[in-house]
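Before the break, one more example. Copy the sequence into your notebook; we will annotate it together after we see the structure.
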Amino acid sequence: MFSRLRLVNFKAWTDTKDIALRPLTMLLGTNSSGKSSLIQSLLLLKQTARSPDRTVHLNLGGDEVNDLFNFGSFEDVLNQGSRSTRQFLIEFDFDNHGIGRIVNGHFSCSYGQTSSGSVAIQMLTLKTDGRKFQAIRREKGAFSIIVDDEQNPRAKGRNYTPERSIAFSADAISALEKDGQLVEDLSLAIRQELERIIYLGPLRRKPERDYPWNKTKPGEVGSDGRAAIDALLASALLRGDEQNYVVNGVSYWLNKMGVAERLEIRQQGRSSRYELIVHRDGTACNLRDVGIGISQVLPVLVASYFAPVGSTIMLEEPEIHLHPLAQSALAELFVEVSRERKIQFLVETHSEHLFRRMQTMIAKQKILANDAAMYFVMRNNQSAELCSLIIDDFGRVKNWPTGFFGDALGETREQARLMFERQKAGTI
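Here is what the structure looks like once it is written out:
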């Protein structure tokens, strides 16, 4: 689980300062304020860590098939108010709760631009258990390897360039001798933490009338939910202890949201094609013939039960095309799945209904205030600003930002004023 994030000169952010990430973290705010950039920073590292080119410093994307996001160029990532500094930084802490040899650690990497225009690591810092390892860029692309607070580098040269932003080179590992294994384990733990990220964007695929199945289970649901149906088919059709686990979980929440009673996988004759049947009010309809909201929330529900235990699920606008009651139920989904499956949720949302239900869940002690973090993001000229919402044990927000979710009380007052004016004028 990611426990802290900090960005400096990254896209809309001059400096986020330290952002505490909890089992359930919600990002709220206006459009184009910088919320998505917080999620994108970790996606950038994930697609770099799994790049086939181990010498890459930062994979800004461009491969529509394999990359999660296309960041453009170095200039597109660098905060526009920081042109003199010409560097940006991504930093996070993690705690994997005993998954692997490294329990917790720290990653920090700053990036600059070479004369040829490519992105280059300036300083990579990895920490765990009081130990610190750094690869610092020197002249002509050479790197110095520094351990803890030692004054002299353990090694210097061009062959000590870090790989994929998160790992020291093989030569650096060798030069570190007995410390080399620790650095290697730490880099592996960071990579695994990034690989456990499941990302679902705001634009999801429309439903088809039927689907083929190749009798395998997909690796991920995909950023547009393209493999969510494959995950449902695998859950229903592959025999084993977890058969129908995902299907049953999805059906439970569709029912709780009031949009369907259950979901059924139905084979078309003897073919290898299947259709998804939605049952509601005594009728059975093909997924294509029901409201778009069901197909849009399906990937959210599938990811919640399909993601491996210990994953971090990042969602943008999970509430899209859902009515208010269903939006509210998403808060309960996140709370219950996070607790039962040790899943971390990082949710960017515009839904007041989702947020209000989260307040209620805290008040009911379904989730502790310390296990949830709420942030409001706003734009101040060229830079984004982050407001940490202070929520007490009764779900009450002590520091409401101006214009937060509009002015419901003001709207009610205006309606009452207009009613009295019209009564006075005798028009009603």
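Residues 1-196+308-428 form a domain with the Rossmann fold fold (CATH 3.40.50). The CA atoms of residues 49 and 164 lie 5 Å apart. Try to locate both features in your own notes.
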